Amino acid sequence: MCILFSFLYFMIKQRAINILKKNWKDGFTVPSKNLYPYQWKWDSGFIAIGLAHFDITKAKKEISTLLDAQWENGFIPHIIFHNKSNTYFPGSDFHHSELHPKASKKYKSTGMTQPPVLGFVLKELYRIAKDKQDILEFIKNKINQVFINHEYFYNNRDPHNEGLIYIYHNWESGTDNSPIWDDIFATMDSPIFSFERRDTDLIDPSQRPSKREYDHYLHLIEIAKKYNYNDEKIIEFSPFLVQDPLFNSMLIKSNQSLIDLYTLIGNNQEKINQLKKWQENSIKTFNAKLYNEELKAYVHYDLRNDKQLAYISSSSFSPIFAGIPNQERAQSLVNTMLEKFGGENNYLCASFDPTHKKYNPVKYWRGPVWINLNWMLYNGLLQYGFDELANRIKKDSIDLVEKVGFYEYFDPRKEIYKEDSKGYGGNNFSWTAALIIDLLNEELK
Ligand code: DGY
């Protein structure tokens, strides 16, 4: 590699490290100062991958802190309110996780979860750590907590024993305001809430969800609270019950990582057998139920109204990360991605179908590029031998950060970038920094 590129990459990595150092809060990392001032579950997983490249002690601490907030029933919440902050709504006094009898007595949290990253994150830590014995010791101490978390999902979030987990809130998906949820919100008669939002004091409202969307978000939480976050009642009464391909892909990827790690540790045949059983059922149903032949993509399934939600988003390609499609279907997904998302004027990979009328390249999960999805797609595409496309996604991710900085999300349209362009959402965003460090790792070897 030319010396100029090496220097450039080295500088990007240093900037990323500085962001993670600044966002570290004595035991965990905030996703973004002020905008997200607590610990978020899937953020923490991605952040630990970046931390592992320069401070394995902090990477381990990030995961330990998150797991410390696990509930007695194996559930891991989406936000842990470790500290006080007046820059985020809705806080702990809205969520009231203590309504659930098995909630953590030590930490306040939300009563919803986020995608199950921890299995594959533990495996990534093993890959990255220099001292394999030390990291394996850490994994041995933590892995059963992750197993119990998967057990919670299969026992409580899979009412038909299909191997597909439902989410009951759009915030559980991670893709918070995707247009995919619009159809479900249209079935709901959410009240008009009166509340003070904090995000739109910090970020241009055109980049954030609307007031009406927040009404729906709060309404769904109120329903769950009414039943003390009881899963059986949520299954019965929540208008939002979705089998999400991104969430389930991450669970399946994490199942496989747990199998690999338990095999490495040894003496865990029973757990491995259970994971294999879940895995077989999950992959079979996933392929049968979530693939849309017409769109040539995986889609979400609305379990409440018993129908596919026929939209293509970056989540549609995430099964590639988990090895779910066979080679032929993976090729179809790649064709769909190239055809709809991959025009030469676009950075990959938009979070929602750029050819669809609901596409908005500026607004949160309704179109912009996200580095965590790119990281998953990059790694998945390599596994199937789509090296050229994988490298394009990696290059696009690095280019975007180099052009505008470590933002939360980015406009996919190449033509809008000028000298003084910015990214969208929070700046100095932790998982963008963390995953760029990981993506640059090969480049800097
Ligand atoms: C938010 O507040 O937008 C968060 O992403 C919820 O997880």
Hetero groups in this structure are: (2R)-2,3-dihydroxypropanoic acid
What strand order characterises the main sheet?
4-5-8-9
Instruction: Identify the overall geometry.
Output: globular
What is the C-alpha radius of gyration, as a whole number of Å?
A: 20 Å
Number of helices: 17
What is the typical, i.e. mean, pLDDT?
Answer: 97
User: What is the tally of beta strands?
Assistant: 9
Structural class: mainly alpha
Low-confidence stretches: none
End-to-end gap: 10 Å
Which sheet architecture does the biggest sheet show? 4 strands, antiparallel
Q: What is the strand content? A: under 5%
**H/E topology pattern:** HEHHEHEHHEHHHHHEHHEEEEHHHH
The helical percent reads: 40-55%
List its salient traits.
50% helix; 9 strands; mainly alpha; four-stranded antiparallel β-sheet; 445 residues; three-stranded antiparallel β-sheet
Q: In brief, what are we looking at here?
A:
The protein is mainly alpha-helical. The chain contains 17 helices and nine strands. It has helices at 3-23, 41-52, 56-68, 92-95, 118-128, 132-156, 170-173, 182-186, 199-202, 211-226, 231-237, 245-265, 269-289, 327-341, 371-383, 387-404, 430-440; strands at residues 39-40, 79-81, 108-109, 166-167, 242-243, 291-292, 297-298, 300-302, 307-309.
